[in-house]
Amino acid sequence: MKIILLSGGSGKRLWPLSNDSRSKQFLKVLKMEHSEQLESMIQRIWKQLKSVNLHQSSYIATRKDQVDMVLSQIGSDAPLIIEPQRGDTFPAIALASVYLYSCIKSDPDEVVCVLPVDPFVEKSYFEQVKALDKLVQESDASIALMGGLPVYPSEKYGYIVPEEVHNEHEPQKTYLKVRTFVEKPMEDQAIRLIEQGALWNLGVFAFKLKYMITYLKTMGFPLEYIELEKVYDQLPKISFDYEVVEKADHVIVVPYDGTWKDLGTWNTLTEEMDTSQLGKGIISGDSANTHVINELDIPVVVIGVSNIVVASSPQGILISDKTASHKIKDIMKNEKERPMFVERRWGWYQVLNYTKISDNHLALTKKIVIEAGKNISYQSHLKRSEVWLILSGVGEFALDGQLYGVKEGDIFKIPKGAEHGIKAISTLEIIEVQMGEELLEEDITRLFMNWDEVIKHCEEKRKKRNERLN
Length: 470
Hints:
Pfam family, one: MannoseP_isomer
Strand content: 25-35%
Mean pLDDT: 92
Low-confidence stretches: none
CATH architecture of the largest domain: Alpha-Beta Complex
Largest sheet: 6 strands, antiparallel
Distance between the termini: 63 Å
Number of strands: 30
Keywords: Nucleotidyltransferase, Transferase
Protein name: Mannose-1-phosphate guanylyltransferase
Number of helices: 11
GO molecular function: mannose-1-phosphate guanylyltransferase (GTP) activity
Helix content: 10-25%
InterPro entries: Man6P_isomerase-2_C, Mannose-6P_isomerase_type2, NTP_transferase_dom, Nucleotide-diphossugar_trans, RmlC-like_jellyroll, RmlC_Cupin_sf
Radius of gyration: 25 Å
């Protein structure tokens, strides 16, 4: 069995801590088991996959702009399948399937199981996932799903309606045939569905690899990874449920009655937090069931207000009744925001200020932290110049083929188009000021990622300069 872990998301559901670069699965708000440290949803589920020996056959499907975040949290050896642009679950699963087929050379009869990256689950969930392998083979189903036993008539989840009601006293009946699907019903309809034996759709799909390969071949798409990547934007931007599952002839569902929770709203996420307060702040004793999550360096004080969540970050501030917190996604869906806090494989940066000086001259100020032993890529920019002030730390700086030692108080001017990079010997804190006609993260040409390659490049440049002088 191969596992595809879907790690995408738009970053609006847990605003303002989440953004387009740091979707909800990357927020470090969950307490690690047997530790005082915090971990994110993706770190937790990857650790769980390791605990049941599924990680060696698992791959993380993620967007191009979230690669650094995944590598930062999971490690530089994380097995990634990279989507060139944002799509939906169907194009992501299609690309991952073709990757397994053409790059990994997986057997077409091998079962592929697709999991979301962000559910709060326990070990029994993964034991059920393992069982899907055998069920797909033995049942000859086109697709097998996992359906959670509803604990209340939720309007937030999709429902799987089986042909017969699940009977927990019939252990020999390991799966049910699916009759139909209902997406996010109103509460009264959800009650009726539960009475009919409907299950929550947990977003878990299992199928033989050849099923998806045949599906894509019928649609006329290439079955080589590099070729499909080139036409990725032509794949339907639609969910896997709508494009594939609801059209399939033989779909089965496996009832799952273990721990499962979608931590997709502040209300559900705070239920699993180990503390009512993260970051600077005070919550008065008469403020019951109130949470403060504060990433700013100023205190947040809540007095006499219950059942609310206060979340603050460089992106903004949210104050919400917990039961209404799910509305933030719709409220912010049309807001085009620049991510103000971003994790990278080498550390993180925070946007401090963004100013329009004139019609064709902009300025942006960042604080950058590069962890000891790590480096940013050797790169250049077409539309901006930069000035770097080293606040603390020791490192090595490369500019147009020359190497310099750096220390606290040093200032470097980087002209537009200049090749540059930096490595932290001890953790570096830098203030970066960008200036130009257009200040976009996409304005970057990466020449080398590995610092040894940068040193080799600079040495070759030095030799050529010496040869010219001689």
